[in-house]
Every structure is written in C-alpha cells, then in structure tokens.
Amino acid sequence: MKARFLTFLSAVLVSVLSTEAQQAKEFSVNGVPVVFRPVPNGLVSAYIVFYGGVANYDSTEAGIEFTAIHTAYESGIPSLPGDQMQDLFAELGIRVSPLAQRHYCGFAITAPSEYIDTAISIIGGILTNSLFDEKSFQKVIRRQKVMINNEWANPDDALRIWSITHMFKGYEYEKYHKGTNRSLQNLTYDKVKDYYLNRLVDKSRAFISVVGDISEEQIKQWPIFNKLPDRSMKVEFHLPERIHFENSELFTMHREGMATNYLRGIIGAPRLNTPDEVPYRLAFEILDDKMFVEIRTKRNLSYAPAAFYTTVMKTPYAILYVSSTLPDSAASVMWRTVKDVIENGFSEKEFRNTKELMRTRFYLQMEGNASMAGAYVRHQMIAGDWKRADLYSEWIKNTTIEQVNNALRKYAHAIRWYYLGDTTQIKNKQVYLKPLQ
Description:
This protein has 437 residues and is α+β, with helices and mostly antiparallel strands. The protein folds into two domains: 22-227, Cytochrome Bc1 Complex, Chain A, domain 1 (2-Layer Sandwich); 249-433, Cytochrome Bc1 Complex, Chain A, domain 1 (2-Layer Sandwich). It contains 16 helices and 13 strands. The strands form three sheets. Strands 1-2-8-3-7-6 form a six-stranded mixed beta sheet, sandwiched between helices. The longest helix is centred in the middle third of the chain and has 21 residues, at 277-297. It is globular, with a radius of gyration of 23 Å. 45% of the residues are buried.
C-alpha cells in the first residue's frame, strides 16, 4: 500500500510540475551566467551568488565572507539604510537572506512578481554601493560570536564541525566558513570592508538563478548585470579527490556531564558526477531505514539514528550517526548492519520502496520557487552542473539493485568514528577498529 501511494504521489507531482513550470534554460547577460525557469505563480525567487567561499581566504580570515555579506546587508545603501530597507521589504512582502556557504556567498531573494525589480535593484546597490558602516559590522560580529559559541555548545553541531575540519585537515574544508573565536579576533572593520569592496563581489565568479513568474526579457533588463565589477579572480579548491579509508579509526572529544554520547562514523564514497554517485546515495537511504529498525525499534539504543551520503561537499562521503548512552553497543550494531548488506546485499522490496520514496522526496523538495532556484545554485557551485537538479529523479529511476549493492561493496571499506561525550563510556575500543571488508 505504501509503495503504491508513493508511486501515485510521484506521478501527481510530476504532472503538476510539468504543467506549471517549463524547463530551465541558461543564458548569459554581459558575461554573467543565468539559469531561468518560468513558473506562473505570482512569485519570483532569485539567487545572486559568487563562487569561492572558503577557497577565497586563508585560515586566519575564516568567517570573513560571512561577516562581510551580513554587514553589507545590515548596512543597506545610501538612499535606504538598513532598518529602512528591511521595513520596506516587509511592507512589500520581499524576503531576502544573506548567504555565506563553503562554496559561495550572495543573496537569496523571493518577492511578488510586481516587486522583484525593486528587490533586485536594492540588492544590486548593496553589492556595488553598500554603506558598510562600522556599527553594523560590530553588530554582525557580536551575533556571529554568539552563534559560533552556541554551535560548539550543541553536541550535534560540535560533532559535525569537528569531524569535517579534522577530516579535511590541510585542505580548504579545514576552514569553517562561519569562523572561529580566534579567527574573528583578526577581522577588523577595515579588513572586512576591504574584502567586501575589493575581493568578494566579482562578475567573473557570479552566477544567478531565477525561478518564477517573470520573463527572460525582464531579467535581461536588470541593471545589476552592468554594475558588477569584473576582477577576474581565480578560485582553486585544494581538496582530496575522494574520501577513502582502508582501516577503521576512533577519534574522541571528551565532554563530561552529558546525558548521552554522540557518534559520527565517516565512510568513503564515490566522487560526484560518476556512475556510482546515485547508486551509493540510494544505498545509504536504504541503510537509514535499516538503522532505525536495528538501533531504535529492535534494541532501543537511540532515539534517532541515521545513515546518509552527503552531496553538499565537493568531496563527498557517507555518514553513520547515533546518540546513545551505550555507544559501544550502538556502534557495534551499525557496523554489523553495514557489513551484513555488503556481504548479502539489499532485498528487492527495500530497494524498490526506498527508490520510490527518494523520487517523491525529490519532487517535494523541488516544488517551490526558492527550492528550485537554490537547488540550481548548489549543483552548479558544488558539482559544476546546475542541470543535475532536474536530472536526479531520472537517475534514481534508472538505478538497479545490482548497481546499489556493487557501489556499497566498492567504497565501504572502513569507518572513521568521531566520538563526542563521556569517553569513559567506551568500554571496548576494538568495536570501533573493525574494518567493513
């Protein structure tokens, strides 16, 4: 029944999307690439971003792009200072979010069709003529420090940040894009302002994604295309070709007084844009369900275990996650579950059900203007091809169970465990050192 319902829902969503939205296309305006998908629903979502992220600065400047883009937005423009600008946005129903990720920064904008030109004009002014006042800078820095401290106080966030920066030591991802308390101390107002005015905004690294109720001709008339400075700045990400472990390892961070312990197991994975990418992602979608059954339903070792293959990094990897008061037992069950599938494969039933669920989730995620526009940006910035966003469902549909089983056996060799919690609860370290094959 569940599988039939998911198949029906997928068909309905495909029909809705195909009738309400035309296919996305790419064109260029004054050298700036634009991806455009018309959707006649009275709204327009636009992303204006600049490629580079953590590759644009060294470790002593970690967080500078985050600080710069948020300061520029808080400051506003000479004719419309920050508070007045945000009041106007609220009055017109315009939503604007500054963006600062590992691979890009910029602005996400959603507005009623009749006000999108106004929104783009103001954001264009921020990019080329922001007031960038010191009061706004100090406000952003204070807020940024609180956010970073809160993240490190939250075990899930701390485990995620620590595992990524440790795993990519010596590479670009060692730099945390929001910064650290130490790096923020190096970010003076003059340094951040200079970065924003002379390094961040660059037409040669710009990419614009537009989805909504607007014409191509209207987009081409936006003044922003003629105002962006062309600095021709080069961006190079220094990253490993892919993550691969032959031996399992355990790294620990001791924290006393926690109610539970947190584990994040990293498993090697195929590179993006390779034939194994989608089958491997499917494998971990199935494993996610299996982990819930084995860890929570059968043994009550954790409330919310998880398994997934992350594609938000240029060098992707797979993750096993669990929080538990019995970490050795939870890790042992997770290891055994993955190893069993490597040796015996997935069943046809669980493969078929998960495949339909993934396709349904894909259509739901691509349902709104902002979701579509954001997906095009992420695929372009991370994988170098925005078209992937529209092709994923078909790739999933064409994937076979043999491809899924083979991909898991090909890349899942060992687990690198990251443990945050009371290390005295690790009673049997050998549990974490066993290879998968």
